[in-house]
Amino acid sequence: MEFLRDIGTSLLASALFLALVWAFSKTARRFMRGLAAHLLHLDVEEVFANSRDAADDIKRELGRAREVFVLTGRGNELQRDVFEELFLRCRARRSRCRILLPRLDVPAGEPDWIADREEEIQVFDPAFGAGLLRRQIAATYDYLAPLGVDGHLETRAYAVPHIGRIIATERVVYLTPYSADRHGRDCPVIKYHRGETYGVLLRLMDKLWVCGPA
Question: 108, 141, 145, 167: which has the highest count of C-beta atoms within 10 A?
């Protein structure tokens, strides 16, 4: 009983400490999450509340990356300054970026995953529901088209459900699992270092890249 009491006291003290850390320091919160991931042998490096919270970290990782792989939905983030410097390096043939966007044209008899995602979005955002998402994705294709450089900045299409956004470099991968009740930009972003999850996500994107039309 004394042994169990000691364990309980230790766990309570740890919980109180973590609560204080969470309350007083964002930097300390990140440190503690990283420490916990290390102790538990997890490959999670960081968790961000949303895309805005993750933007600076993503930009920093992209700034030192030579190989980048992106799978996204509407792709608004590709038109912002987070990717600007990377695209300049790609056009100068000093880096490579592969981008997977949803397929716009859907063959007869196949699922329309853009329409499927828009049905989810229109429940909480009435601006959607009449093809707006497809037009936004088309605008991203139009934005990227003149920037393309064979072997350095390339775009292909995928035709699977829109369940998340993935941004990968040689060192890390950011996963944003989409929720059915909010925009992707408002969903948490999980940063993984190289490991099992990194390998699975990269393998998924490699398979989609091979299958996707240019």
Answer: 167
Strand, coil or helix: what is 112?
A: coil
Q: What is the pLDDT of residues 85-96, one digit of tens each?
A: 999 999 999 999
Exposure b/e, 72-91, CB count within 10 A at least 16 = b = bbbbbbbeeebbeebbebbe
Tens digits of per-residue pLDDT, 117-150? 999 999 999 999 999 999 999 999 999 999 999 9
Torsion of CA 154, 158, 162, 166, to 10 degrees: -40
First to last CA, the chain: 66
Task: Could you please state the CATH topology (level 3) that the domain comprising 43-211 is classified under.
Answer: Endonuclease; Chain A (3.30.870)
What letter represents residue 188's amino acid? P
The pTM for the full model equals 0.82
Give me the sign of the Cα torsion angle 186, 134, 125, 119: negative
